[in-house]
Amino acid sequence: MAKLDEFPTGERRIVQVGQRTIGVFRVGDRFYAMNNYCPHMGGPLCEGRTKPWLSSAAPGEFVLDEQEALVACPWHGWEYDLATGQSFLGPGEPPARAYEVTVERGTPERIAGGRNGRRPGPYVAETFPVHVEDSYVVVDTSSRPVAAGAAGGER
Ligand code: FES
């Protein structure tokens, strides 16, 4: 689909594959592919802004993960993990939340199903495996064939 050396990190390509439109993102050395269709209300999800995952192990300590990112739908702002398609922060939610804090012994654990303390939202965008083959970036849509006559129902 695209030559590896013509696909620099931080770039995205939005391509037509059959009846689907798929966004392919390069984040660091990794590639991600996602259906350009927001499960919230059908917005052009892959045209939204991306940002790296930010984590914090302690107050004042922040780490940007340069290999993983979120994309925010340009219509209403739901954010989706490029790797899993899981939605997080959505419309009407403040960008920072207040949480009750307790001090416990042991290792910190993530909120069930969440990540870095973020709660999963109700939506999951369709994602596709991506690999590099002979210097080409290849998106594998074979495991999710487009059903005949699915025009309009699936992008
Ligand atoms: S359509 Fe994407 S957030 Fe609403």
3D architecture notes:
This protein has strands spanning 2-3, 12-17, 20-27, 30-35, 50-58, 61-72, 79-81, 127-128, 130-133, 136-139. It is mainly β and 155 residues long. The protein has a single domain, classed as Rieske [2Fe-2S] iron-sulphur domain (Rieske Iron-sulfur Protein, 3-layer Sandwich), CATH 2.102.10. Strands 2-3-4-8 form a 4-stranded antiparallel beta sheet, with no helix packed on it. The chain is globular. Mean pLDDT is 80; it is low at 95-99, 108-112 and 146-155. FE2/S2 (inorganic) cluster binds at residues 38, 40-43, 73, 75-78.
CATH class: Mainly Beta
Number of domains: 1
User: What shape does the CA trace take?
Assistant: globular
The assembly state of the depicted protein chains is single chain
Distinct small-molecule ligands in the complex = FE2/S2 (inorganic) cluster
Cα-atom radius of gyration: 17 Å
Low-confidence stretches: 95-99, 108-112, 146-155
Mean pLDDT over the full residue set: 80
Classify the fold: give the CATH topology. Rieske Iron-sulfur Protein
